[in-house]
Specification:
mainly alpha, three-stranded antiparallel sheet, flat
């Protein structure tokens, strides 16, 4: 690559510093534009910068390789034309240099052993330009904390982040470290709720604050952790727990205004409070019941209304007519047909169908299809078994490289649960094509590995599509993290 000053660019006509191509001198702005907008070479059909005249076709521009030239768009360090970034080097080489400088332990002169997994993931990011932007964009919280950890000035642990502000930048870095294996996986929503709990209880009297704190930590948070361990933590459960705590704190403030505490509250006082706030009854039932079970205040109680399951009466003739329609009507979406048949043939409620996992479906060597709704596998009848096979052969398409669920989808492909797909129009009868809001998925538990069939299955699902390594979720741990989105 030869440089010359104050020559006219053959592409834009500006006079300035140029570099020489076989077609004439080009300025650095035009070189950058060509490098950042590669095209398919008409001779080798590869995506590369096109700026060289073809040796076999007059008036046709090709890549440097097909023209037999040394590319002026290649990185001076690695020789790659991909990921243009600096004047002479690519983004990947610059990123490796900056990560090495940032994560090097002064005691050893090498990348800190505890941060090595993070270095490997970021250096291999699908888009290194995004990582460079994240490292340098103000306030650069991630780069600052990583430098302190690499130099040993800050411990690499969850306790470090518990002492730092719980803002978006700090939470993002913590999730990134957990996703790459530097830190153990953790339940971010539960820890956020613990911080919120301290703030919510601070204005209360000491007795009431301690009592509600025990209820929240020993009962609500304990239940949330158990749910999270099973991988079923949802936003609904988190919002419900916060609603119960808010109801208890409102009761404590009312009791304080009436010269009482929760422990000394009487039944007439509770009834007076509920008369003033009729909507508080449902949110206080759990707290008042806990007060009685723990003997903290057994004098008060809230009568609960027994709930009954909804009953839908369908004549046998109508039910079999709907079953026949679902088995043979190709105009109805396949997922709705299968879900409706699960309801009509096996009396499965909608919440069970939308929460079904891929390992509940097994295809035996003799072709039988078994579905485990609870604990016992059930053989699917003719007709329905073929619909399930068809569904497995044509799984739901991926929606986003960062979304994964435990629904029925091929390995490595983001799943679409039953409830998400019931939003499509369908001509199915009401009973045979159930529709419900999408079941919230746990945001901070490790993503499940969805498989369409068990290891014993003889059906071969479609090969997984590789959408590239995903970025870690902003709110929780994930399996891999590359090319982080800017959290600021």
């Amino acid at each position: 690559m030869t440089e010359s000053r104050f020559r006219e660019c053959v592409r834009c006509g500006l006079v300035g510093t140029t570099m020489m191509l076989p077609t004439g001198p080009i300025c650095y702005r035009c070189r950058r534009n060509i490098a950042y907008h590669p095209a398919v070479c008409p001779e080798c059909f590869e995506l590369r910068p096109i700026a060289y005249p073809s040796m076999s076709s007059y008036g046709v521009l090709v890549c440097a390789g097909c023209a037999g030239e040394v590319s002026v768009f290649a990185c001076a360090q690695c020789g790659s034309e991909a990921h243009p970034y600096g004047a002479i080097r690519c983004a990947r080489c610059i990123l490796a240099e900056r990560l090495t400088a940032l994560l090097t332990d002064p005691a050893t002169g090498a990348v800190h052993i505890g941060l090595r997994p993070l270095y490997d993931e970021l250096a291999a990011a699908a888009r290194p330009q995004s990582v460079l932007t994240w490292l340098k964009k103000p306030p650069a919280t991630g780069a600052r904390l990583l430098g302190l950890m690499a130099r040993g000035e800050l411990p690499i642990s969850h306790d470090t982040f518990r002492e730092l502000p719980a803002d978006r930048s700090h939470n993002y870095l913590r999730d990134l470290l957990a996703a790459t294996g530097v830190l153990p996986l953790y339940q971010a929503p539960i820890e956020q709720m613990e911080r919120w709990l301290d703030i919510a209880l601070a204005p209360l009297a000491a007795d009431d604050s301690g009592l509600i704190g025990r209820y929240a930590r020993w009962h609500l948070l304990r239940h949330l952790r158990q749910v999270a361990e099973r991988g079923n933590l949802t936003k609904t459960a988190l919002y419900g727990a916060r609603s119960n705590v808010n109801a208890a704190t409102r009761l404590a403030r009312w009791a304080t205004n009436h010269h009482a505490t929760i422990a000394s509250l009487t039944q007439p006082q509770l009834e007076s409070y509920l008369a003033e706030r009729p909507g508080a009854r449902n949110s206080l039932q759990g707290f008042v019941a806990w007060l009685g079970r723990t003997r903290a205040n057994p004098r008060i109680s809230i009568l609960t209304r027994k709930s009954t399951l909804p009953e839908v009466i369908v004549a046998d003739a109508d039910r079999w007519e709907q079953i026949d329609q679902l088995l043979h009507d190709e105009q109805i979406a396949l997922y709705a047909r299968i879900g409706g048949l699960f309801t009509l043939l096996f009396a499965q409620p909608l919440q069970t169908i939308v929460a079904m996992r891929a390992n509940q479906i097994t295809i035996k060597e003799d072709g039988r299809v078994l579905v485990t709704f609870d604990t016992i596998p059930i053989e699917m009848p003719p007709g329905l078994d073929e619909l399930i096979r068809r569904y497995l052969r044509n799984p739901a398409p991926a929606r986003s490289p960062t979304e994964t669920t435990a629904g029925c989808s091929p390995a490595g492909t983001p799943a679409v649960t039953w409830s998400e797909r019931t939003s499509a129009p369908s001509s199915s009868p009401t009973a045979s094509a159930p529709a419900a809001p999408a079941t919230p998925r746990p945001s901070h538990s490790p993503p499940a590995s969805p498989l369409l069939s068990s290891p014993s299955s003889s059906a071969s699902p479609t090969e997984p599509r590789h959408a590239g390594p995903p970025s870690p979720p902003v709110t929780g741990a994930a399996t891999s993290a590359t090319a982080p989105a800017d959290p600021t």
